[in-house]
Here is the input.
Amino acid sequence: MEIRKVQVTGGSSYIVSLPKAWINSLKIKKNDPLGIIIRQDGTLIITPSIIEEENKRVKIFETDAKTEEEFIFRSLIGAYISGYKTIKVVSKVEMPARIRMAVKEFCQITIGPEVIEETANMIITKDLLNPSEMPFDKTIQRMYILIKSMYKGVITAFVDRDPVLAKDVITNDNEVDRLHWLVMRQANLISQDIKVADKMGATIWSASHYTRVSKLFERIADHTCRIARKVLDLEDESINQSAITHEIVNASDLAINILTEGVDAFFERNIELSNDNIEKGKDLIDQCEKITDQIIAQSGRVALPLNGIIESVLRIGEYSTDLSEYVIDYLIGEEI
Here is the structure.
């Protein structure tokens, strides 16, 4: 770090000289304009770029007759998360219909990208979303609302043996995935361009923690879907002891309560609530162990799905406990 003294001229103007090596490397000349960005943490950014430029990063994927649609779809998701604004999929010959379908499925399942140009051997997508329109707080809140709705739905499906509701829960997992990809994309954009951070009112530090929370939510949604699949396996089976159903519901209520209080602590910035919430995770472990012992008495065709359900309930509670630990880490880290 270079230390420069502040000088005063004219009684009201404060001047700091700029490093000569920096000036030379950017070929800045006398009377050239420089942009100054005042950040929320009190730091200044000095940049020669005074005209706001679009993210010009372009990713090109070349395909041929042997290219698999699953591969190109995963590649598109990877480019999206990495922060590419424009993605081109090209082919030396006429592009197969399955590749076109994969590109259009990518645009449907992600937030922002749209097909802006299409020819016989090329498709171009462009992200039309302004990052400031989807701040991290709103995206995380949306993910939480979706997950809570999915979780309540899957427990109702379990109690009522409702296959339609269970399948609906599985379908909603796609919405959680697309929000998670958006969070990761925006975190990468912030790491690449500090001006994006200012637009979103975020820092690299906060973006990293929002990404961790988003990943936890994505995993919780995955386990909710696993419960839904186990409910489908139980559709035509009968449970010998109705008490087990009741106890599984009680454990599920505790798990979602841990998640809810973890989210409340996150948005309320409450370390004490986070710490108290972590202790509840121990109670959930005890409940799930007792339920597992009772499941052993069931027939194999019932025991396996029930065991899968209670394992996922426990994992959801553990991930929710991890959220409370992240909140403590995040809030203490902000004080540094």
Q: What stands out?
A: The longest strand covers residues 113-119. The chain has three domains: 7-47, 58-127, 132-334. The chain has a mean pLDDT of 88.
